Amino acid sequence: MKEYDVVTIGAGGAAYPAAFKLKRSGYNVIMIDKKGVMSGNCLSEGCVPSKAIIESVHKYNTLKGILDLKVDYKKIVDHKDSVQRLRYSDHDRELGEADLKIIKGTGRLVDENTVEVDTGTGIERYHADNIIIATGADTFIPNIKGSELAVTSRDFYSMDPKIKSVPESITIIGGGYIGVETGSFLSILGSRVTIIEMLDRILESMETDIIDKLIPLLPRMDVKTSSEVKSIEKFNDKLKVLLNDGEIVSDMVMMAAGRHPVLPEGLDDLGIKYTKHGINVNMSMQTNIKNIYATGDVNGITPLFHAAKRQSIIAANNIMAGNVPVDYFDPISVPFTLYTIPQLAYVGILPAQAERLGIEHYEATYDMKKDSLAEINNEVYGEITLVFDKRMKIIGGYVIGNDAGNIINEIALCVSRGLSLRDLAEMSHQHPMSFEGLDSAARKFY
Questions:
Q1: Model confidence over 31-57: pLDDT tens digits?
Q2: 33 in helix, strand or coil?
């Protein structure tokens, strides 16, 4: 049996930040990953490739009224692939420089200090003082007759993907962020998009008042809510989706019904607690066995790559403290961006949540119609809204429109560090940048 200080099951964003930090601190670390590369789903088929496509389409959408442009979707896919290859190359170099190793295989927990790995050619065992479970999440495929006829996000975003042309029409099953983001860019490229959502609205996990502001700004998509999919079947050279209230025929069907945690084998034998949403952890990322941590999507707290990286570092810090918690995760200050066109981003406590919690709060808003960069980018719509309490402390905020995914990070910093509205009011943001909207909104109260 091979001896290590720390074994990570997974080599994505929930694992490798901890591995690098621990290695620099003198720990002997090994990562185990079924793909055998450092990336996780974010690089292989998630946030990086999807945004490579979406950002290309976003730029096209911005410039099509100014320049005579035509889109070659295959070239956009080629660009996406080149970005993925570059990122994989960067990761390989980083691994070499850090003298870190990844074992390709599937890890199984044997006991509190042992991980067994099926490499495909044999079984190996690794003993470690500490274990980090970072196995991520995967596409959820509901039990629907004919579901094998549908494509998934993997078919759009993986390296050398199955889909390299824009379908004339597509039915997307699921109105969450993956379905709406994909439908958004496909609609701009000319596809007739229908989104099927079984709940009474799309983007159900996000605040209704904010989503109601975004929806009128989205590209044209036919949205059917409160509709249950019964089956998918072939219909001549197309596909038919049968619903509880009708049917839809289209060239392609995409399954975007959410994601589920990938749980390693051995949890039950060890008595590690978990639910269908993920492994139970405290805010120090410890399971109920203090030397076994679960970070990233597998714990279901905040299933975002940047949250996974932060959780990974928290696990490393607490391992170095002898499994005595010294670092904690703060989910409130983690920003989220919906990469539709236009974007929506938010962080912290938003107005409706503040109402539910009984928090006295106020809002400072900046209209993007007055923004110089929004005008330059031909995106004169949306807003920046700061949410603050009676102490004038910023507790949350959201951005719709131009550069939302960037602006939200500064609001997140304010939430994380307890900054006040005055702090933003006195900040000289660069002109002409949409960040100016932050101090413009704050100055309404100073």
A1: 999 999 998 889 999 999 999 999 999
A2: strand
